[in-house]
Design brief:
3 domains; five-stranded parallel β-sheet; alpha/beta; Rossmann fold; single chain
Amino acid sequence: MMPAKEWARVFTLGRARGKIAELFEADAKRAERFSREACGILYDFSKTALSEESFAALLDLAEAAEVEAARDAMMRGEKINTTEGRAVLHTALRAGPEAVIEVDGQDVMPEVRGTLARMAAFAREVRKGPITDVVNIGIGGSDLGPAMTALALQPYADGPRVHFVSNIDGAHIHDVLKKLNAATTLVLVASKTFTTIETMTNAATARRWMAETVADPAAQFAAISSAEEKAAEFGIPAERVFGFEDWVGGRYSVWGPIGLSLMLAIGPEDFAAFLAGAAEMDLHFASAPLAENLPVIHALVGLWHHQVCGYATRAVLPYDQRLARLPAYLQQLDMESNGKRVSKAGEALAFGSGAIVWGEPGTNGQHAFYQLLHQGTEIVPADFLVAMQGHEEGLAHHHALLVANCFAQSQALMLGRDHEAPQRVFEGNRPSVTMAYEKLTPRMLGRIIALYEHRVFVEGAILGINSFDQFGVELGKELATALQPVLGGAEADLDSSTAQLVAFYRGYQN
């Protein structure tokens, strides 16, 4: 049941919202009142149009939607993925050594810890050599998570170099493999079912490439899959197959075997710190009151901007070059989770669900799309993320300039500027939140990702949707499978546009 009364109250306050700069003028302590600090993250949401009254109304909305009960049900292992009849337990992958979490009456933690131990033993053996390069072949959550985190944690990478292949476009695997020595390369095939067409096509190509110079190519493959028999048919023995359960969604899976490439790069110890950081955010999410809870507040800010204010998109702007893939990662996390049109009950939603998520690192974005952020007709709420310290010794002046730019951009979006020439007017009153933290360590990265995971969950819970299925990816896959033989000459009853495109393709084939 949607909490209609609470939604109505929030919408009424949204229509009466004031200008952000005026809220600061009226309250000298606004930044203090609209900031929270937990898990080493300062979360500043003062540069939004939220007032004390509207924030309180959003908290009432969260209570009426029974967010805390939904959160507790998820963490207990209840089957909250109602359309697929599954639990949602990515949090179990990073739970502490004493945790007991049951699904269907069985504690899942011994298997989780056993798999993690197997991963660590495998990683330590590979990191001894002679493997110099690792190629992770996957797509979606089997690629975005490890690719994003491996880049983000480059300062901690002391193992083999890791590379990522996802696209079915042959250019992707060609350009990665041509740089590598097959004799010193390990290939990870990441597909839960071992049937994902893009992944398995790329895996077969990598095996043919390996076989050109390696006597036993299968010996340099490992599988991240729950389909042990299919992996064996491919030539990968059970001891090099790392599986995970159906209660781990692809976009939430970097914490387990899908993160093996990251573990190979940074080592089991730093990978453990990555998990520990996420577990710390889990504990905060599970125990902090709603008004002090970072993921809950982040979700309420998102609902305020998208559903109430009507801002269609949100920008993720990390002021960290190594977080270049974070916007794409969060794009999948958010849009695949909450890009739904019906409620859990199958009823059409009364208003919009997920926002469009996009972004790039600062300061590059400042010289690209910030023009629209500052002066465009569309208002785009922004998430700024920035560390107070960089990793590069001797380049502190670079980092100071980076931080200054980050702080200045949020200030400029809020304040704007008057000018006699209309082309030079900045209206201001453009909202943002800033997440500041000491340094991007494995532990801190774990906290940040978990914060966003729980933000998505809370938004979905309040909207009354299932954030954990993704049927929207199916239709295109099914049609592509049907069209492949048509491209080769098979007959089919097609609409005129598709038929024309097929004919155009055939015209360029020998």
